[in-house]
Q: What sequence folds into this?
């Protein structure tokens, strides 16, 4: 039985993306790889809606590896960060900054809670060492969208930069990196793009990348300066990459940009999510967030009183549908999450609801 992944990663992939896993073997130190790498870089910029003032690199690893590549590489002695932390993946950024001894203000405003922009401004006014405001675009643990344009404006008002974890947002939301003034952003193939886990990427302002040195990086492999310098000099990665995952990433992004179109791709995800949410409302289920705070692709919803989330997820799995249990305190509140990412279409969502009705 085919399992349908209504989970926020890994996701359903198009058949043509899956077929690229059968691509013949190539060496990463070859013209063929270099040509593909350049094509992929251009697609990444389009996914983020960046302009030619940006540059992209690919990092072999999960979305966390792209985040760690950036946050372990861009701070000089005396620099600090202001972290907007309102969910599990804000906590993940906190862990990265802490592990690499980057001084930072951990503004923990509460899961599913908006940051107070006035408080953010106070932090920026009062601490000149802050170099980056760091935030998660789509906080997957709650399915909430953070106010990235407003945070970027505040950062730039005080001459600072903004780093944005777009791991579960890119291709599901309009990132508008250039329009919103995002300085550095990250994502990965195994989310909304509809490729596989393990192919992460970074999009950043060229002026930032040009200012980095390998010595600023606190790791060997996840060193943003090394990735940038090798990409510019040779269209290569500094170490051996997971070449077999580059092909699916290119195929998935090519599908989005050159076949379906980014606007249409995002609209399809919104349509699928609306179908799922409308069906859940009809079943009387309660959402964690008001509609205006929800992402285009993930819905956090509570089971009826007295239902056990672990048993429910097993029933759904036995029926061929994978959904996520809520994280942290939400697990104990019997919350679950449904994602419509990647190769999921409206008819898939209608079938999902028919199964959901019988398993609650």
A:
């Amino acid at each position: 039985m085919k399992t349908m992944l209504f989970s926020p990663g890994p996701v359903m992939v198009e058949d043509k993306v899956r077929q690229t896993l059968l691509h013949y073997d190539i060496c990463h130190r070859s013209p063929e790889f270099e040509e593909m790498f350049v094509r992929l870089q251009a697609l990444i910029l389009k996914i983020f809606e960046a302009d030619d003032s940006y540059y992209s690199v690919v990092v072999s690893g999960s979305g966390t590896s792209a985040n760690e590549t950036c946050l372990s590489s861009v701070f000089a002695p005396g620099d600090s960060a202001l972290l907007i932390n309102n969910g599990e993946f804000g906590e993940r950024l906190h862990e990265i900054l802490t592990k690499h001894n980057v001084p930072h203000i951990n503004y923990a405003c509460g899961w599913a809670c908006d940051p107070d922009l006035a408080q953010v401004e106070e932090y920026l006014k009062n601490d000149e060492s802050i170099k980056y405001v760091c935030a998660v675009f789509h906080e997957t643990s709650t399915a909430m969208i953070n106010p990235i344009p407003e945070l970027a404006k505040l950062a730039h008002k005080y001459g600072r930069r903004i780093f944005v974890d777009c791991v579960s947002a890119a291709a599901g939301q309009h990132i508008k990196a250039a329009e919103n003034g995002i300085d550095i952003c990250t994502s990965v193939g195994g989310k909304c793009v509809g490729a596989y886990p393990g192919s992460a990427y970074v999009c950043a302002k060229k002026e930032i990348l040009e200012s980095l040195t390998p010595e600023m990086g606190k790791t060997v492999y996840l060193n943003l300066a090394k990735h940038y310098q090798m990409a510019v000099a040779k269209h290569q990665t500094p170490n051996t990459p997971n070449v077999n995952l580059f092909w699916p990433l290119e195929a998935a992004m090519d599908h989005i940009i050159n076949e379906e179109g980014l606007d249409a791709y995002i609209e399809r995800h919104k349509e699928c999510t609306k179908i799922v949410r409308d069906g859940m409302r009809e079943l009387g289920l309660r959402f964690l967030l008001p509609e205006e705070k929800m992402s285009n692709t993930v819905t956090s919803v509570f089971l009826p009183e007295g239902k056990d989330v672990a048993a429910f997820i097993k029933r759904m799995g036995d029926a061929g549908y994978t959904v996520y249990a809520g994280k942290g305190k939400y697990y104990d509140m019997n919350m679950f999450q449904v994602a419509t990412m990647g190769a999921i279409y409206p008819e898939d969502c209608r079938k999902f609801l028919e199964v959901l009705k019988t398993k609650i």
User: Anything to note?
Assistant: The chain has two domains: 4-10+261-359, 16-259.
